[in-house]
Design goal:
- The protein has 266 residues and is of the alpha/beta class.
- The chain has seven helices and 15 strands.
- The strands form four sheets. It has a seven-stranded mixed beta sheet, with helices on both faces.
- Strand 7 and strand 8 form a beta hairpin.
- It starts with a strand and ends with a strand.
Length: 266
């Protein structure tokens, strides 16, 4: 079976060379660059991989572009801040010979603020990244935290990707601000209207889920900090959603019956 590794990148000159070096075992490596303004393209080309450029609309669209762009039997998506271990490489090479599967979930070890986080939802953090081309596409209704629409059964790999997720608090804040903006717009597009209680209940539920249900407390101070941060950005998502509804002239929200999650659906 023919395999292509696709690396999505934008302004990743600090990561791209190390990432490519860990996936050179694949039959073909393609970098899909979102019009970087740094040396990402130059470094990738110097390492001998194929480089394509496509303007970034959203994450789901970018991955669908990549699926249409390559002509291999299988596509393995790797982000520039991820690394594939030799053990994972051997496992991928083996499982793509299995005709019964249309895709494979890959676990990740997330390094956050310099240390691997094993709880609070950050592990095993399965991602559906190894896809049989022609039997997978990304749901355009989910522009962030993409969802694969798979024609067939998916399996689960054992060996993880190494994900250097957030190196600093500033990086965490910048990316979460971007994610929450996408998520708030997606909620608006679905017709979900928040009540004022959503601004209180949703963050509290997120903290409880991260810190207690997903055992964030087992990661010590980092687990507590991450649970609090994710609760804060849940609050920000619903605050942005309120602003979006106000901008669309929506009023009288209190007259509508809430769903069980504290939101209101049209």
């Amino acid at each position: 079976m023919c395999l292509s590794v696709v690396i999505l990148a934008k302004d990743e000159e600090q990561n791209i060379a190390d990432c490519i070096a860990t996936v050179e075992w694949a039959g073909r490596v393609v970098v899909l660059d979102s019009e970087s303004t740094d040396r990402t393209r130059e470094i990738a080309q110097r390492m001998g991989v194929t480089v394509h450029s496509h303007p970034f609309r959203n994450y789901a669209d970018q991955r669908n572009v990549a699926l249409r762009m390559v002509d291999s039997d299988w596509v393995f998506f790797v982000d520039a801040d991820e690394r594939a271990t030799p053990e994972l490489a051997a496992e991928v090479t083996e499982v793509i010979e299995d005709d019964s599967k249309a895709g494979w979930w890959v676990p990740r070890h997330n390094y956050i603020f310099g240390r691997v986080i094993r709880h609070a939802g950050w592990y095993p953090d399965y991602q559906l990244r190894l896809l049989r081309r022609g039997r997978a596409r990304y749901d355009p209704a989910r522009p962030v935290h993409e969802v694969v629409i798979l024609d067939g059964e998916a399996g689960y790999l054992q060996h993880p990707l190494i994900h250097y997720n957030y190196r600093t608090l500033a990086e965490f804040r910048e990316r979460q601000r971007r994610y929450t903006a996408y998520e708030a717009q997606a909620l608006l597009d679905k017709g979900i209207r928040p009540r004022w209680l959503s601004l209180i209940l949703q963050p509290l539920r997120e903290f409880r889920r991260r810190y207690l249900t997903l055992q964030g407390y087992r990661d010590g101070a980092r687990g507590l900090l991450l649970s609090l941060l994710m609760a804060w950005y849940t609050f920000r998502r619903y605050r942005l959603l309120c602003a979006l509804w106000q901008a669309h002239g929506v009023s009288n929200q209190k007259k509508m019956l809430p769903n069980s999650d504290g939101s209101i659906k049209r």
